[in-house]
Specification:
Helix content: 25-40%
Number of strands: 7
Strand content: 15-25%
Radius of gyration: 17 Å
Order of helices and strands: HHEHEHEHEHEHEHEH
Structural class: alpha/beta
Largest sheet: 7 strands, mixed
Amino acid sequence: MRMRKKKNLPSRMEACSDIHVKEPTEMKGKWRELAKGKSIAIEIGCGKGGFISELAARNPDVFYIGFEKIADVIVMAMEKVRRAELKNVVFICDDATNLKEIFEDGEIDEIYLNFSDPWPKKKHAKRRLTYISFLEIYKFIIKDGGKIYFKTDNRQLFDFSLTQFEEASIKLSDVTFDLHNSEYEKDNIHTEYEDNFSAKGFTINRLVGTVDKSQGKDQEKNERI
C-alpha cells in the first residue's frame, strides 16, 4: 500500500531539523562524538517511530538513529520523538544500500530490523534487508561483538534469513518462532504493525545475530594462503 503524501511535508521536515541529519555522509567517523560516549543503535526502516521512541525512552544512556528512506513516513517518526522530548534520537532519510558511506567500520553497536518488507518473489530476494549483501554491510558498520535484532511475522522471510545469517557467519541466538509466547516477550517492544498482525493470528519470529569480525579476517587470510 502506497503511503499518502503528507501535507506541508517540507515545513514539517524543517520543524524537525534539529533531529534530522540532512548530510549523513559528512558524519562518517564522527557518530561517536555526536553520541557523547553513549553506545549507538540504529533501526533500519523505523517507520512511524513507535518502536524507536519507546526504546529510546527506556534506554536514555543509548544513542539511537532512526533510518528510513521515505520522507512521508520518517516525518511522523521525528514528530513523535519531538513530542516525547527525547534527546537521544536522530533520524536519517536515506537508503540502506548507502550505510557504508554513512558509517565507519565498527561505528555502530546494535542494529534493529523490524518487520522489513519480505519481497516474496525470488527475483527480488536481493532487496530483502536480511539478504547476505546487506548482512555484509551490517558486519562492516557494526563493532566486533555487536548485535543485530530481527523480527518478522513472515515465516518464509524468517527461514530465508536464518540461512543468510549463517552464510554470513553471524552467530545466531535467542531464536523463536513465537515471540509473544516465549521467554523473550518480557523485554519485547511491540510495533503497531506487530500488534495488528498478531491480532490476526500471525506468530512473530525473532532472532539475535552476533557479529564476529574475526570470521571475515580468517576467511580473507585463508583465501590469500
